[in-house]
Specification:
Layout (H helix, E strand, L loop, with lengths): L5 H25 L9 E3 L2 H17 L11 E3 L13 H33 L3
Antiparallel strand pairs: 1-2
Helix pairs in contact: 1-3
Length: about 120
């Protein structure tokens, strides 16, 4: 019943994107001392969401199953150190903070939407 609500679906996708992004940041930090490692990030949520919406419309048109949300990995901009590593810990901490903020936003939207539905249905 609640899976068809766009606001719930969007909040869920934002939460998934932020978790995936946080995992990528953790991988980058874990490889901060690996020679030649190139830092990665995920495409912005807006792009991944738009791509997912197009895929769902195509799937409906061709009667295939619903496509799972997946953000594409991209190279993170960064200056290479002498050993070729492009991980900047300061940049990764900023990206981590942004991922946490996006996750909290998704959970707040989800929580407020549930509260509105409960109020509408007469629940407490």
């Amino acid at each position: 019943m609640f899976t068809d609500l766009k606001i719930m679906h969007t909040a869920s996708m934002l939460a998934r994107h932020s978790v995936q992004r946080h995992a990528q940041v953790a991988e980058n930090i874990a490889n901060a001392d690996t020679p030649g490692y190139k830092a990665k990030d995920l495409e912005p949520f807006a792009e991944a969401f738009a791509k997912s919406q197009r895929a769902q419309m195509d799937a409906r048109a061709s009667s295939f199953a619903d496509q799972a949300f997946e953000a594409r990995k991209i190279d993170a901009e960064g200056v290479a150190s002498p050993d070729g590593n492009t991980v900047s810990l300061e940049d990764q901490m900023t990206r981590s903070t942004a991922a946490v903020r996006d996750h909290e936003t998704a959970l707040t939207v989800y929580s407020k939407a549930l509260a509105m539905m409960r109020a509408t249905l007469g629940g407490r």
